[in-house]
């Protein structure tokens, strides 16, 4: 299950306690504190702590001592200007700390974003739970024939069932041997730091992940994208919901200029200008490779 009884009891106790503060608070984020949102079959995300809000971004941009400006419209306009012109520092003034439970192979992708502070559950000191990510049948797919790091058509019938049985059986067998190696009655047992190497990459781990808003938005731009691997994308999509309530002005600007926008090369811009003048532009006379032209067409066609 996503949360152990001990973790749920701790969360319930934390949510029942309120404290006065002089710090800036985001009412939208306050509602998310100490709530675990399930992801995949055994995973979750939950907000542990945060700092700042939309007004803090504006305050940092102006290096002022007040909360934003006299007008909310001015604050939103400033945030949109900062996002539009790629000014990153004011967004770094906001931070969030998340507790995440995720499969190890997802964690290996996630940790590639080296701009966060991370503390992971240690299998050197503790014994990992018998929890593995087993994909739903609709997420079992063949290798893509056009993308070396993507998926193709979903597996069906006997082949899908065979793969599921392999995943379940191999996970269970590896954990059985892990338990046997770390010690039984009458034997010394293998050290935990060695026994863990036998565990599969779909076993669940947990960590605390603290990151500033600028780098969080970069993470979300890549991992909430439709081309991202499903198993990390669902975490990013759940995080998007939290960020939208935390800093609504910043998130709307992010959706507009990053998630919904596109960056064009000088060659692509030249092609757009030629098209607007009525010229017929093809891949052969565009100056682009076939791959670049395919991506360019994807931007134009939406």
Q: Which descriptors would you attach to this protein?
A:
alpha+beta; Gyrase A, domain 2; 3 domains; 5-stranded antiparallel β-sheet; 13 helices; 7 strands; flat; FAD; NADP
What does this structure look like?
With 302 residues, the chain is of the alpha+beta class. It has three domains: 5-132 and 202-259, 2-Layer Sandwich (Gyrase A, domain 2); 134-201; 266-301, no CATH class. The chain is built from 13 helices and seven strands. The strands form two sheets. Strands 1-2-3-7-4 form a five-stranded antiparallel sheet. A two-stranded antiparallel sheet has the order 5-6. Helix 4 (72-84) runs parallel beside helix 10 (248-259) and helix 9 crosses helix 10 (248-259). The radius of gyration is 24 Å and the shape is flat. The mean pLDDT is 90.
